[in-house]
Amino acid sequence: MKSCLRYIDLFTDTVGRALAWCVPLMMAITAVVVVSRYGFGVGLTAFQEAITYLHGTVFMLGAAYALQKGAHVRVDIFYQRFSPRTRAWVDSIGTLVFLLPLCGLIVITSWSFTANAWAIREASVEPGGIPAVFLLKTLIPAMAINLALQGIAELLRNALVLMGDEAAELPERGQL
Predict the structure, then answer these.
(1) CB–CB of 92/158 below 8 Å?
(2) Residue 175 lies in a domain
(3) Does 49 reside within a domain?
(4) What terms describe the molecular function in GO for this protein (predicted)?
(5) CA 118/CA 98 separation, integer angstroms
(6) How far from each other are the two terminal CA atoms of the chain, in whole angstroms?
(7) Residue 176 lies in a domain
(8) How many domains does the chain have?
(9) Domain span including residue 54
(10) Per-residue model confidence as pLDDT tens digits over 78-127
């Protein structure tokens, strides 16, 4: 159980750290777009769309990283006062009742939408746009799968806490 947890956490952490590099890249591309548009009067459609693609990638694939680090929104008025065992119960129930079913619903409802985009190799409707809208749409089921995988890791971590392994809780939770 611990090795499975370790591998999922390593995967999520690696993806999250890689995604962090998208943010300065987005900022640089935004600066190029602004300078080219307002300084030279040249529009760069592909660059503008690249910003959207990067933002979507960070948001969608970063959800699992945020879950791992405990950065999702929750009502901490009571939660912060709970013992590690009570937190493990609350988190486990929330994962089983809300997170995993939601991830399953997202995969099921987005699968044909994404498959259709891949079947026609959906491209941007804008002249000079990125011819890979199908890749952007792939982020929807990928996000759900990635988030469900991290949800399973959280269940494993909570199971360890409930079995008496207090060290199973991440020391850096709540920090990105």
Answers:
(1) yes
(2) no
(3) yes
(4) transmembrane transporter activity
(5) 29
(6) 25
(7) no
(8) 1
(9) 2-167
(10) 888 888 899 999 999 999 999 999 999 999 999 999 999 999 999 999 99
